[in-house]
Design a protein that fits this description.
The protein is of the alpha/beta class. It has 15 helices and five strands. Strands 3-2-1-4-5 form a five-stranded mixed sheet, with helices on one face.
Length: 400
Amino acid sequence: MIVQISRILLSFLFIFGAVSKLISMPFFDSMVAELILGQDYFNRPQEMILVQWLTRILVALELWIGIALLQNKGFKKVTLPLTLLTLILFTIHLFYESLKKENGFIEGNCGCFGDVLPMNNLESIIKNVIGIGLAILAWFKFNNQTFRSWTSSVFLGLVTLFTLSFGVKSYQKATESINSTTTSQNITIQDTTDTDFQDSMLIDSPTTPSSNKELLIKKSQKVITTSEKINKIISKKNNASSSNRISPQTTLELLNSYVPDLNKHLQKNDTTLVCLFSMTCSHCQEVYRDISSMKSSSKLPPIYLVNYGSEYEQNYFFTQAGNKNDPHYKIEDFTLFKRLLEGKTYPRILCVSQGNIIKEWDVDSYQKENFMSHFGILKIEKEKLKNGLQLDLNQGNSPW
């Protein structure tokens, strides 16, 4: 009985991990790419193809181990050794990555369960150690304990359903229309070679109406202009420094290229907070709640959001994080979003003043008190608290 429970728990661990990664593959791809290719992986499209094959092989292997743990054939000769080897290698990797940076054990998401169930490295190491213990117990106690023939398929279905349930969100208020000064749009960046060829054929076709030809010509010119502009920015970025550091000016050019109305918003306001958020990130939601609570202060500049996620996820984000009237732009391409993050993690907040980035925060540097101090809000809040206490004392209403 103990062996069977151990096998079921191990199987759950691997199947849950595989399905979690499957439903958040862009996130998992980016984590592996950043690990292998570096923080500028989004500028290396050819290598990204190999990375995507690697991530899919890892997910397939994890799913296979999860199912094989419920089978007897080759259990001690193949399945258990492979299970132990996988857990040990990933544990060593987690230790190595954690020691490379400060607070590496307790910050960030290890990616073991994609972005479905974020875990830091320490939590994942504990999980792996428990898994190793269960595998060793099954190794020594195994004596051909069998499961019924239907167990594997039913268990796979149940764990898959359980994993998918993490993506079920409340529809409360989520269907309300979002009133914003900027219409949220999708960005699609594709290879335009085939579409350009098709457009050119339509332009030359005698059956194409002249009005349509004019539209196609304008579209072709727009594609060429945008492509040249983006290539120029990327070239400038690559030549900016041999150490891959990006200048603030290049950062704004990248943002303005991909976010159409951002430049108009920056020109309208002397200072703007440009916030890059992932719509499924709980830390992004927390930061936006903080910023929304500070908006009553005249010290806080106007806000512009660059959001990664689907329309539904964006609606859900606003129901969870609060204010939804700030202008925002939606991006559904994770690799493009990572390009705008420039290898950094979300949330990323830029304070832009008169065309220059004067201050920046990310997941590691953001602290609510420091953020408030930068804009003088903390001092105002302290003065309010001090005046409130003084008023209570003068009226004889001591708070103690």
